[in-house]
């Protein structure tokens, strides 16, 4: 299969990097040169990757086209382009619905949306698709786990939950800052925290069917240090603040769908 990427940001680089290292039936990968640093790096990584001068050349030479431009740029980029009827198109554009994308594309295409995470580059990603699509599963399956949302509301919930990534690194950053204020160097603080959370991530993968509340209790001796920190965190409104943030992201996604006239698909 010939793949094309319109937009060459972090996610495009992660997906292409993962595909190049996976056993997938990909004969050619075309990318736009919007980000010349990333596109040049991808082209240097494999003879399969070709940098195209414009997005139309990517579409014309691809069986599956990935849309990976910023939401605010999407209409201006996509509307002038000509897609082939029945062409497979995967949108990686957050907040832009099927209806809006199809309107901008114009030509009837096989359209599905996906939320790949940067870890697909190392085949450790979890990618959500909507709707379920065999072509999408064939591409993202080798890059980690694939989950297909049953409704657009489910897809939005997965998308909202993935927004926790920034908060995750924000929490680590706050902990690292606190360690530095107590005399520990930045490098040592980050190495320590990375090791701790890497181990915890491994635990969650091995015990993925075990509720997080159970894991928290198993990692917290009654009246111990872990229990004390979580109690302070909870009393300060930490869990509720996180849920409020998730609600706000979910509302944003829902509003985008309503504004486009989209309903449950």
Q: What's this model, at a glance?
A:
This protein is of the alpha/beta class and 265 residues long. The chain has helices at residues 10-20, 36-45, 55-60, 71-78, 98-105, 134-140, 152-162, 164-181, 186-206, 212-218, 225-235, 238-259, and strands at 2-6, 28-32, 49-52, 64-67, 88-91, 110-115, 125-130, 144-148.
Structure, described:
By secondary structure, the chain is of the alpha/beta class. The chain folds into two domains: 2-148, Rossmann fold, CATH 3.40.50; 164-247, ProC C-terminal domain-like fold, CATH 1.10.3730. The chain is built from twelve helices and eight strands. The protein has helices at residues 10-20, 36-45, 55-60, 71-78, 98-105, 134-140, 152-162, 164-181, 186-206, 212-218, 225-235, 238-259, and strands at residues 2-6, 28-32, 49-52, 64-67, 88-91, 110-115, 125-130, 144-148. The protein has an eight-stranded mixed beta sheet with strand order 3-2-1-4-5-6-7-8, with helices on both faces. Strand 2 (28-32), helix 2 and strand 3 form a beta-alpha-beta unit. Helix 7 packs across helix 12 (238-259) and helix 8 crosses helix 9 (186-206). The mean pLDDT is 92.
